[in-house]
Amino acid sequence: MPSSFGLRPRMITMEPAPNPPPPPARLGVNRAGYRGERIDAASLLKEIRFLANRHRFTEHVSSVGAHELVFLSRLGRPGPRCYLSAGIHGDEPAGLVALRDLIRDNAWPDDLNLGICPCLNPQGCELGTRENAAGLDLNRDYRAPRSPEVRLHLEWLASLPPWDVSICLHE
């Protein structure tokens, strides 16, 4: 029977690839909590701030307890607007490392406007936990914000025009 697009289903028989590689070993490290790679998030954030300053990003900083929530921007250019964030889950360190590398390499198009939140959950990143120090999963806190991190993030976002694209880095 043809589909609404006029296509007819058909069966395709595929032979297995000769000598397929074995699947990667499962580490099982994320069961009952993250036990994978840890990073020194405070040092990495310090490096990100240094590199962003070198490349003339504007920095906005808000305090969350003993931690700082850092917002970086490079605005006022004629091109599209791109937002990037990482570190909303403290047990997902790869996003911070990726943003550090992107800022270090500074290979953005000249006309690109950028807004970057390199570490939305500095307490969770320090602790290596998905949640912040109060036990809140910040990724689930945006509809009715209770955490200071999310409230400050929403304030910063509301102070800026909308983005053309948003990229939220997770593992």
Quick overview of this protein structure:
This protein is an alpha/beta fold. It has 4 helices and 5 strands. The chain starts with 40 loop residues before the first helix and ends with a strand.
Could you give the topology of this structure?
Layout: H1 41-54, E1 58-64, E2 67-74, E3 81-85, H2 94-105, E4 113-117, H3 122-127, H4 148-158, E5 165-168
Parallel strand pairs: 3-4, 3-5
Antiparallel strand pairs: 1-2, 2-4
Helix pairs in contact: 1-2
Structure, explained:
This protein has 171 residues and is of the alpha/beta class. Helices cover 25% and strands 17% of the residues. The chain contains four helices and five strands, in the order H-E-E-E-H-E-H-H-E. It has helices at residues 41-54, 94-105, 122-127, 148-158; strands at 58-64, 67-74, 81-85, 113-117, 165-168. The longest helix has 14 residues, at 41-54. The N and C termini lie far apart (41 Å). The model has no long low-confidence stretch (mean pLDDT 86).
